[in-house]
Amino acid sequence: MWQFELDGQQWRWPKGEWLGISGPSGCGKTQLLTRIACGTSGWLQCDQHPNLLALPSHKRGLGWAAQSAPLWPNQQVQAMLGTLAKRHQFNDWQSIAHELHITPLLQQYSDTLSGGERQRVALLAAVICAKHLLLLDEPVSALDANAARQVLSVIHRIATQRQLSAILVSHQWHDLTATCHWVYHWQSNTLSTLADAHRAHVLNHPSNACALWPLDGKPHDGQVLVNGHRLECGPLAPSTLRIRIDAHEVSIARQQPGPSSIANTLKVTVTDLSHISDTSLIATLDWHGYELYALITPKAVTTLGLEKGLSVFAQFKAHAAKPA
Question: pTM of this prediction?
């Protein structure tokens, strides 16, 4: 179990899991990670190991990917990564470089890389250096959403294999949902599970509502196992941890629909109906303790006679089940 205390922040989270930090720009998130990496006060300890913040920075076992992705100046990427790998006895870094699409960059100099390329290299450098914990400050901000998801998925898998925990700062909610188990809300000074944090996020952003379901195992042959149930899905990477189902992809029926091209039909219970505007509502649906959302119209509520506690059927196509 990790224990952290610094300037009023107190966190506890399990070893090997990721903690995300959510908060507005300028609130101090980057400064906090900087103090964890370089400061001399506070408490950061895992299990019976000594307080890492009492050790010199180079002995803390931290891998730090800072927001601007600083790299060694005027150095070939391969020379920089090779030197770090030798220093930290990390032998298989080149296979990870291939997964992160860094291999074509190895002969280039750090000063010639684009922002996204620098971030990929900085993430690999952080993984090479990390013995206990990754500190990731907006590590994929220069990448598009799909590339960011793929890169974080690779880093998360490597971290899991090495039993590394991580603290991830990001303004993008999908970065946190793709990797984190816990979310710290800077403004409210509260730490919650990802499920509780996502529920609050949906309440605050109902027009962007989506289900967020963890997988029981790896996707296989166009299917995933969720909560012990097999669902049809679109193409997913083997390292996918969770799927997202957007509310606008979900339809509701009172009777079980017959055969159709819509692959997934689930028996659910209506738990809430929330107005977004004069023309739309969000129906919150319970599926064996997992929440699913449907974007519907007031006319649909009247036509179907929807009300809290009613059992209905929810449908969504295979390609609606996307990586979180």
Answer: 0.89
